[in-house]
Write a structure and sequence with these properties.
7-stranded antiparallel sheet; FMN binding; Pnp Oxidase, Chain A; 3-stranded antiparallel sheet; alpha+beta
């Protein structure tokens, strides 16, 4: 099988894997806020609290994440599709299109997310054409909102039939 064929099958397989969607933010060396849409997000450890995500080496803001001390992961709410698309679009003043503030941990925090995990950089690991960023969670905020789901290039909320009440099964 040719490399291009494998890559296409890889994209098809993983594009059919439902994920949550995040926006990761940080501050560049010159003090400007940076952020991008990320769905390569996962928990790593409870002790200490560690998460991970990966950044493509072609992303212009990658150094802010790889070399910075802090960043924030925003687990998007179901109604934040336009914000998700904005932070996935290159050459756009992303922060002018949303409400945000600088946190006490010196990271840009966007309003309205389902959850925000403020992190300090724990480790950066080179992996192919990406760098895996591992962060230690130092602060967590959660809103009572439905999280966003991404599946087959579509965004939405988690369908109601996937929620079950454990007490009903007894």
């Amino acid at each position: 099988m040719l490399k291009e064929e494998k890559q296409q099958l890889f994209k098809e397989a993983l594009g059919n894997y439902p994920t949550g969607v995040t926006i990761v933010t940080a501050v560049a060396e010159d003090g400007t806020p940076v952020g991008l849409t990320v769905n390569s997000f996962a928990s790593v450890s409870l002790d200490p609290l560690l998460i991970l995500w990966s950044v493509d080496h072609r992303v212009s803001s990658k150094d802010a994440f790889i070399n910075g001390e802090t960043f924030a992961v925003h687990i998007l709410a179901a109604d934040q599709v336009e914000l998700c698309k904005t932070f996935a679009t290159p050459n756009v003043d992303r922060f002018s299109k949303c409400s945000w503030n600088m946190s006490e941990h010196n990271v840009p925090v966007i309003d309205g997310a389902f959850a925000v995990l403020q992190c300090k950089l724990h480790q950066a690991v080179e992996a192919g054409d990406h760098t895996i960023i591992i962060g230690e969670v130092v602060d967590i905020d959660i809103e009572k909102r439905d999280p966003m789901l991404y599946h087959r290039r579509n965004f939405g909320s988690i369908p109601a039939q996937f929620y079950t009440n454990i007490d009903e099964k007894k």
